[in-house]
C-alpha cells in the first residue's frame, strides 16, 4: 500500500509498504480476472489469505483505466481495492541505478525502495497528505483518467522504441555481439551473488532480444521485456506470456526465491497451487548461486 509516513524531521512523505508474496500480472491476466468471476474469486481468496501484495506498473494501470466503459473501470477498481498493492517502476535502468545508490548507502535492507515509483505518484497529485493517509488503487486509476490520456503514456513507449530499436537491430547484425549474446545466455554463472539480480537479468534479456532476430521490435516488445526484468527480479509470482516465461526458465540461472516463479496463461492451475503453498520463510538472497 501507499501511505503517508513521518520522516526523521516530522515531515509527511509517501511510503510504499509491501508484504510478500509479491504478485505481478501481465495485462492478459487482468482481462481474465475481470471477465471470469470464478478465477477472480480464487485469486482474491488466495491472495487475501496470505496478505499478498499485487504489484502494478504505470503502463498496466493506464491499460486498466482506459476506455469509456465506466462499468469495466469500476469493476477493475473494486477488484484491485480488495487486495494490497504496490507500484513497480519497470524501467530497468532507473531501478538498477536506485539499487546501486541504496547499496552504496549501506541500506540494502530497504532494497524494495528501488522499485517504488514515487515520481509517478507525485505526478498523479499525491504529493501532499490527504485526510485519509492511505491511497487506494481506485484513487490512482481515477487520477490517471483525470490527468493524462492513455496516448500520453503510449507516446513514451513510442519514443523508447525509436531510440532503442535501431541500436538493437544494429547489434543483431553484428557477429561479435551475436556471439557474446549466445555465450551469456548459455552461461550458468553470475558475476554477483547479491539479490536483487536486476542488472544481470537485464543483460540477459538484451542478449535474448539480440539472439532472437525474428522477434519484432516495437513498443509492446519493450514493455514486455522491461516488465519481465523488474518483476521477476523482485516478485514471488509473475504471470507473463510464453516467450518471456521461456526466457526466465531457460536463461536465468537462479532458483526461487532469488527469481520469481513464472506462469503463462495455460498454467493458471499451477499458479494457484503455488500461491496456496507459499512459504513466507523463503526469502530472496538465502540460496545464492556460486
Detailed description of the structure:
- The protein is of the alpha/beta class and 290 residues long.
- Helix content is 54%, strand content 10%.
- The protein contains 13 helices and 8 strands.
- Helix 1 (27-35) packs across helix 2 (37-50) and helix 3 (58-65) crosses helix 7 (137-147).
- The two termini are 35 Å apart.
Q: How would you concisely characterize the structure shown here?
A:
This protein is of the alpha/beta class. It has 13 helices and 8 strands. The longest helix has 23 residues, at 150-172.
Low-confidence stretches: 286-290
The tally of helices reads: 13
| H/E element sequence | EEEHHEHHEHHEHHHHHEHEH
Average pLDDT figure: 85
Sheet having the most strands: 5 strands, parallel
Q: Report the strand count.
A: 8
Instruction: Tell me which oligomeric state these chains represent.
Output: single chain
Q: Based on CA inertia axes, which overall geometry fits? A: globular
In total, how many domains does the architecture comprise?
1
Strand order of the largest sheet: 5-4-3-7-8
Question: Taking Cα atoms only, what radius of gyration do you get, to the nearest Å?
Answer: 19 Å
> What's the end-to-end separation, in Å?
35 Å
Name the features.
single chain, 290 residues, alpha/beta, three-stranded antiparallel β-sheet, 8 strands, 54% helix, disordered C terminus
